[in-house]
Amino acid sequence: MAQKLSERQDNILKFIRRYVAEHGYPPTIREIGRAVGISSTSVVKYNLDRLQTLGHLRRKGEVSRGLRLAGEALSGQNVIEVPLLGYIRASAPLPAYDEFSDEVVELTLDIVREPELVYALRVQGESMRDASVHDGDLVVLRHQQTADPGDMVAAWLGPEEGLTLKRYYPEGEFVRLQPANDAYQPIIVPAEQVEIQGKVIAVIRRLA
Amino acid sequence: MAQKLSERQDNILKFIRRYVAEHGYPPTIREIGRAVGISSTSVVKYNLDRLQTLGHLRRKGEVSRGLRLAGEALSGQNVIEVPLLGYIRASAPLPAYDEFSDEVVELTLDIVREPELVYALRVQGESMRDASVHDGDLVVLRHQQTADPGDMVAAWLGPEEGLTLKRYYPEGEFVRLQPANDAYQPIIVPAEQVEIQGKVIAVIRRLA
DNA sequence: TTTGACATAGAACACGTGTTCGTGTATAAT
DNA sequence: ATTATACACGAACACGTGTTCTATGTCAAA
Question: Inter-chain contact B68–A111, Cβ cutoff 8 Å?
């Protein structure tokens, strides 16, 4: 049975877990002390050394933030958080990529091989049915403002038309946004009225 | 298309990923510089600022190790390893669930809500095209030996017919395994010649 | 030729960071 | 009464850490 921790030591562990979850790296000695009400860095060090002796964490001496919790998963290395920015068809353009996103979906690098600038949208509607993209599916996109002909893209068409998911075909000074469903008409608009906001790189559908 | 990185910037990102995987916290400016051959801390800072501008990482100013990679997950807890057991259409039945699998695909609990008894297969062929399952897709299945009518299942039909992916319809003492593609005939066999090996719970398709 | 963007580099600096030292209290065991 | 252990605390220190400043070079575009 694990040796009983003092209340302070328990608070330290809880704080470290929260801090890592929020920041992605561990706290400093002084941050720990401020959080749990220890005014002396040597007391924080003493308690961290105790927690290390008891197997709750590991410290690397003389480097900043040199601690990690016991049992912390390294497999998280393969996980990415993809901002879930909303829905096709939305009534606002997607936010700037570096803006805060409330909601994320966790995927892995087995699904998204290059995790830069990716986000996800949930599909509403069946305009891309013949491309096997259905209502309720999750599409993963890479933020980019250009596309190749035939790419499936998220395009912002202005406040009236909103955000749409279609195949992109430039045609002179127009752009044709082609549905993959005969029930929908292609959208043909002047190129300057279209803002490409991302290209689809994966589709994920849950059935159960 | 993402803006091209210089070789140095690419090396910096690779180093940071390796360092975080090994240490559990990010490297310092000086550790990055030593690793990629930059002798000046201001050049490291310049490159990190550029990588941040391009969306590859985020920095928190004036704190040690205050950086994190874009899309880096905050927790490994949500990851599961799903055995990737082979292909539809295989010439052998699937192994017992607890047998060793060489190959896995990592998914998250956002994709597979109940991780018990799941495995994945890669689709070969287009027999389920009208169900939006295409050649090359990854299907995730839950190992089970029963199914409800209409479920998409992996069924083993014996050494001649192999493993197939179809919709399952029991019809008296027969079973109809229904493709979702008019180019394929339904398979109607005595129920005792069919072994249900799993039911599809998710479909994942990568486009890029 | 000039300009601007990008990239490099070293030096200096401010301050963050962890460690060491000396000292104290409380409690339990001997 | 003494000893050992756990836990506490502030001060001082050495050095790690990130930023700023200044200078320079390359390259492409105007």
Answer: no
B204 touches A at CB < 8 Å: yes
Mind listing the pLDDT tens digit for each residue in A9-32? 999 998 998 888 788 889 999 999
Residue A47 DSSP code: H
Chain A, residues 121-160, CB within 8 A of chain B, namely 129, 132-134, 142-144, 146, 152
CATH class of B79-204: mainly beta
Separation of CA A6 and C1' D1 in angstroms? 29
Q: What letters, b where the CB count within 10 A reaches 16 and e where it falls short, cover A154-179?
A: bbbbeeebbbbbbbbbeeeeebbbbb
Range B7-69 has CATH code 1.10.10.10: yes
Picking from A151, A139, A131, the residue whose alpha carbon sits closest to that of residue A202 is A139
The residue ranges of DSSP E strands in B72-130, in sequence order, are 79-88, 104-108, 118-123
Query: Stretch B142-148: mean pLDDT, rounded?
Result: 83
In chain A, residues with a C-beta closer than 8 Å to the C-beta of B198 are none
